[in-house]
Hints:
Helix content: over 70%
Radius of gyration: 20 Å
Structural class: mainly alpha
Largest sheet: 3 strands, mixed
Strand content: under 5%
Low-confidence stretches: none
Shape: elongated
Amino acid sequence: xxxxxxxxxxxxxxxxxxCGATAWVNRQLKKYQRVPIGNGLTGAEAARQMLAYYGIYxxxxxxxxxxxxxxxxxxxxxxxxxxxFDGRSITATATACHEVGHACQYAQGYAPxxxxxxxxxxxxxxxxxxxxVLMLGIIMNIMPFVTIAVILYAAVVLFQLVTLPVEFNASxxxxxxxxxxxxxxxxxSGAAKVLRACAFTYVAAxxxxxxxxxxxxxxxxxx
Length: 223
């Protein structure tokens, strides 16, 4: 049912999209990690200044592990990787301001973020369960199980689609702030390239998930 040449082709396409997105992001991040920020601020300092600029004083900025750059609405905190927390580069500033953009969304009750948050419990369950339900349906030849698996996977895809405006808006807030405080145009251009590259990873993930969902739906229609 699923391991024909069409499905293998889908796997190849999704791998190309994923690897291409990762390579481009890493290239942009590393490129602008080597470009110092003119104001000399670390990412942590830039994050705290942006929070203060928008009157948000209850959000701690803490150091995380490698690759841990995120805003956690459960603790209302910003976590930055060591490279972003201590770095004094365009990449560090862009990353920090993007995560603070999420903190601003949370403080202002940004609707897409609320919707995304409401989907988290469902998606946590669906993302872990859909493959097992699918395989059980295939092995036991129980088509209702396959249908349930497709529905669960559709919930995952919906979550990824809702994530896109949340990420785009956080980057837009970061760019607006950097322009407001008078960051030089060259540095803003570099920050924009970093943020666009990071945003593309979400687009790539959503695209590959949509392709997978369309394939699953197509297979169901043939049965």
